[in-house]
Amino acid sequence: MLDVSFYQQAFVDKFSHDLAVECRQDGIIVQSVMPTVLATKMHGLQDMPSMFVPKPETFVDANFSTLGIESRTAAYWVHKIWVSLTIECNYMEEI
Predict the structure, then answer these.
(1) Are the C-beta atoms of 59 and 37 separated by less than 8 Å?
(2) What is the pLDDT of residues 42-59, one digit of tens each?
(3) Confidence at residue 22, expressed as pLDDT on a 0 to 100 scale
(4) In whole angstroms, what is the distance from residue 58 CA to residue 90 CA?
(5) CA angle 40, 41, 47 (to 5 degrees)
(6) Is the dihedral of CA 86, 92, 93, 95 positive or negative?
(7) Could you tell me the pTM of the whole model?
């Protein structure tokens, strides 16, 4: 069963996509960013960054490298894999 955060993220992603379509003709870029867990105090992982749980600075650097290139991104390469697998699994669960 999908949790509420998945539906919230799906709503924001869809809203961002629709907004991007409307604003494209005015030269405005809208990007939907879908992070997973970061090494922050909020998650209690501020002292434990790893390949799977990057520091916020690492995530931000990865995100800046996608600006103007991707309209939908998880930015950090491990998060991109995780998000694509999660979306695929949730899609298969709905079928």
Answers:
(1) no
(2) 766 667 767 777 788 887
(3) 93
(4) 28
(5) 70
(6) positive
(7) 0.59
